[in-house]
Specification:
seven-stranded mixed beta sheet, alpha/beta, 28% strand
Length: 193
């Protein structure tokens, strides 16, 4: 028997990514405290949160495969968040101009029947072009990525801000590492396509 899939996230970006795999799934919100712990690295934080999000829904979905994911971005070793405002987005992109931002995306697949969970952290680097104030303003005016860590949407016009991308799975930059997820699902007997 194939277990039903649950995406433990309210992110529309993760939902759209999972839809690419053409599998049936439900989406539900995990109640998880996302506060970083003292001396916790970005990699440790996103891994812990991905696992916690999957487990947060385990009682509600006792016969399912639950996908948890979380993403943490860093710049010069410091965790950066979503800009929320235009002013913050301008500052982030100004700071990133000519530099590299690292994105760590944690992934967890929990089988709530067996209690077995698989987890992984994917690192992806974004190398920014040198950006003028005018380029930044034009981009933000069009795309308004204020709910996106790093102040861009790589699946949209954000791609014009980059000099190059470095990593194994471009879907991890959007928030859900599909290449690794497909392997995890296969380990649970779910084959795609």
């Amino acid at each position: 028997m194939t277990l039903a899939l649950i995406l433990a996230s309210t992110s529309p970006f993760r939902r759209e990514l999972l839809m690419r795999l053409q599998v049936d799934f439900r989406q539900d919100s995990p109640e998880t405290d996302e506060t970083p712990r003292a001396n916790e690295s970005a990699e440790q934080l996103c891994q812990r949160l991905a696992i916690a999000k999957a487990h947060a829904l385990s009682e509600k979905y006792p016969q399912h495969l639950i996908i948890g994911s979380d993403q943490v971005a860093t710049f010069h070793g410091k965790i950066i968040g979503k800009p929320i405002t235009h002013v913050n987005a301008v500052q982030q992109l100004t700071d990133f101009s000519g530099h590299t931002v690292e994105f760590y995306t944690g992934l967890c697949l929990l089988n709530t029947v067996t209690g077995v969970f698989q987890h992984h952290v994917e690192c992806f680097k974004v190398h920014f072009r040198i950006l003028s104030t005018e380029q930044i303003e034009r981009y933000l005016h069009v795309e308004q990525p204020y709910q996106c860590a790093g102040s861009f949407k790589s699946e949209g016009l954000g791609i014009c801000l980059f000099d190059r991308l470095e990593g194994n799975d471009p879907s991890s930059l959007i928030g859900l590492p599909l290449i690794k997820l497909v392997s995890m699902l296969q380990n649970e007997g779910v084959y795609i396509p």
